[in-house]
Design a protein that fits this description.
The chain is an alpha/beta fold. It is built from 26 helices and 12 strands. Helix 25 links the parallel strand 10 and strand 11. Keywords: Antiport, ATP-binding, CBS domain, Chloride, Endosome, Ion transport, Membrane, Nucleotide-binding, Repeat, Transmembrane, Transmembrane helix, Transport.
Length: 666
């Protein structure tokens, strides 16, 4: 569908440009992209392939197809599954931390996100498919865990399945199974015990195996950007690698700040009311600016693939237009450094323009109401910067091989500098600057490219970019979006060092109305229904009686509503003044009183409790490690109050001198 914007294959319209020309006998080595079966829109419609009118017609068709794909995608998201927008990773992190977003991992979200992801990536917008594929994989995980009662009844078990699903998602998106497991561990998961580690490993393995057996790229590889470099790297090259790391950190900071400011603007102004119009306008601007430049016209994955490539003898890319020495008699794969030809200079300024365009447009694209990933655009920004630095270093080494830094390792006629390696390091640096990943990033990069001996340059760039970006702000893009949306998320990386106690945080405080509780055997069905109507709490503590306030358990709001509804429909004699009881044996009732309603089975008899003198440091730790949503506060068995996750977040904000109301879920 990406190639459909430029032309169509006459033998089979579902073939891409490359596949269309594979079978053709008329292709030559010089014009490998031209074959009679593939026709541009101008050739098909007005039978012209060159000239101004043909160019303008192709330009218009490109824009029209892009607009059509984007409009279809945003309409489907808006009508059928509003949750299918964005990357999905911030929400998955929040869900794995113990918060429930109903419908976020539902069947409709899965279906619509899968379809619209194809559309938005083909429309040429500056976004990737990797983040959304993690969301899609988690939807599958959620769907399968709902089929087995062992997982559907147990929230903790279900979260383990979702951790493994996230690993499988990255494994498929990048063809990087080990990177996927580490990504789930480092970025997504909240609580990651050893058994989840090896289950995630198994899930990622099966995912990668399935992908390999389908062979989607037709090259027997799991990945799109497979590269083989033939030269080692040298110590002197660490300096440009670290510079690329600094660039990645700065770009990450710039991107996060600008993107969050734009998303906040979208939330607080009228802009947010017109999601379809916004997508159409951004797509139109992207298509109009992207078409004239060959590096922005092609799909971002192809661009990265071209930037990673080493210039062999068989390359037809502009980036490989060097001036050849006619007397050269060397093996094909070890071509010495050569002076740049006119094609390389053209490619350099086109790449510079493409780099500026990508940096700006990605800020406005990420966060629109369509599925949008961030991995591929960040890697493209880094790869363009890296390739330009690489070509610069290569030409410097060629023209000044007598300088002291080049003298030891770069003799004339040797192949010293690989510009493709710089592109790879730059891509890793920019991705690290935006997401703040380190370990999983390096592993994903070398699994992606097969470049095992380049782990040290990748590590140097990833660590530098993280340090530089952290100097300007600790949050990665996903944490920033979690805060922007006000999800109740306790970051594992934050320290809590204050000396407050549970009694300082719990509700009700002095002067507030008392806690809404249920008693074990003295409330009628009507009392409970009134309580449910008047409050919007997620659940209610159950006590022996109003006087003693001794805690028995905790009843979830949802289960109470369902139990009362079912009892009224199925059990005879249940009326508004039936007594509800949570004890094992029903109380002695007078002969003419209505049937009692027994609700012991929906009662959680072991709710999590702390005493009023528990330090908040411990309470925060408990909330983090167990993914709790609320915790009851008692003193010698008597219920005093309740602490919810939102109370903990408010308290942490207050301790950090922020406005506690500014961080809440909206």
């Amino acid at each position: 569908m990406t190639d459909l914007k430029e032309g169509v294959c006459l033998s089979a319209f579902w073939y891409s440009h490359e596949q269309c020309c594979w079978t053709s006998n008329e292709t030559t080595f010089e014009d490998r992209d031209k074959c009679p079966l593939w026709q541009k829109w101008s050739e098909l419609l007005v039978n012209q392939s060159e000239g101004a009118s043909a160019y303008i017609l192709n330009y218009l068709m490109y824009i029209l197809w892009a607009l059509l794909f984007a409009f279809l995608a945003v309409s489907l998201v808006r009508v059928f599954a509003p949750y299918a927008c964005g990357s999905g990773i911030p929400e998955i992190k929040t869900i794995l931390s113990g918060f429930i977003i109903r419908g976020y991992l539902g069947k409709w979200t899965l279906l619509i996100k899968t379809v619209t992801l194809v559309l938005v990536v083909s429309s040429g917008l500056s976004l990737g498919k990797e983040g959304p594929l993690v969301h899609v994989a988690c939807c599958c995980g959620n769907f399968f865990s709902s089929l087995f009662s062992k997982y559907s009844k147990n929230e903790g078990k279900r979260r383990e399945v979702l951790s493994a699903a996230a690993a499988a998602g990255v494994s498929v998106a990048f063809g990087a199974p080990i990177g996927g497991v580490l990504f789930s561990l480092e970025e997504v998961s909240y609580y990651f015990p050893l058994k989840t580690l090896w289950r995630s490993f198994f899930a990622a393995l099966v995912a990668a195996f399935t992908l390999r057996s389908i062979n989607p790229f037709g090259n027997s590889r799991l990945v799109l950007f497979y590269v083989e470099y033939h030269t080692p790297w040298y110590m002197a090259e660490l300096f440009p690698f670290i510079l690329l790391g600094v660039f990645g950190g700065l770009w990450g900071t710039l991107f996060i700040r600008c993107n969050i400011a734009w998303c906040r603007r979208r939330k607080t102004t009228k802009l947010g009311k017109y999601p379809v119009l916004e997508v159409i306008v951004v797509t139109a601007i992207t298509a109009i600016i992207a078409y004239p430049n060959p590096y922005t016209r092609q799909s971002t994955s192809e661009l990265i693939s071209e930037l990673f490539n080493d210039c062999g003898a068989l390359e037809s890319s502009q980036l490989c237009d060097y001036i050849n020495d006619p007397n050269m008699t060397r093996p094909v794969d070890d071509i010495p450094d050569r002076p740049a030809g006119i094609g390389v200079y053209t490619a350099m300024w086109q790449l510079a323009l493409a780099l500026v365009f990508k940096i700006v447009i990605t800020i406005f694209t990420f966060g629109m109401k369509i599925p949008s990933g961030l991995f591929i655009p960040s890697m493209a920004v880094g790869a363009m910067a890296g390739r330009m630095v690489g070509i610069g270093v290569e030409q410097l080494a060629y023209h000044h091989h007598d300088w002291i830094i080049f003298r030891n390792w770069c003799r004339p006629g040797a192949d010293c500098v690989t510009p493709g390696l710089y592109a790879m390091v730059g891509a890793a640096a920019c991705l690290g600057g935006v997401t703040r990943m380190t370990v999983s990033l390096v592993v994903i990069m070398f699994e992606l490219t097969g470049g095992l001996e380049y782990i040290v340059p990748l590590m140097a760039a990833a660590v530098t970019s993280k340090w530089v970006a952290d100097a300007f702000g600790k949050e990665g893009i996903y944490e920033a979006h979690i805060h922007l949306n006000g999800y109740p998320f306790l970051d594992v990386k934050d320290e809590f060092t204050h000396r407050t106690l549970a009694t300082d945080v719990m509700r009700p405080r002095r002067g507030e109305p008392p806690l809404s509780v249920l008693t074990q055997d003295s409330m009628t069905v009507e009392d409970v229904e009134t309580l449910i109507k008047e409050t919007d709490y997620n659940g209610f503590p159950v006590v022996v009686s109003r006087d003693s306030e001794r805690l028995i358990g905790f009843a979830q709001r949802r289960e109470l509503i369902l139990a009362i509804k079912n009892a009224r429909q199925r059990q005879e004699g249940i009326v508004s003044n039936s007594i509800m009881y949570f004890t094992e044996e029903p109380p002695e009732l007078p002969a003419n009183s209505p049937h009692p309603l027994k609700l012991r089975r929906i009662l959680n008899l072991s709710p999590f409790t702390v005493t009023d003198h528990t330090p908040m440091e411990t309470v925060v730790d408990i909330f983090r490690k167990l993914g709790l949503r609320q915790c009851l506060v008692t003193r010698s068995g008597r219920l005093l109050g309740i602490i919810t996750k939102k109370d903990v977040l408010r308290h942490m904000a207050q301790m950090a001198n922020q406005d506690p109301e500014s961080i809440m879920f909206n």
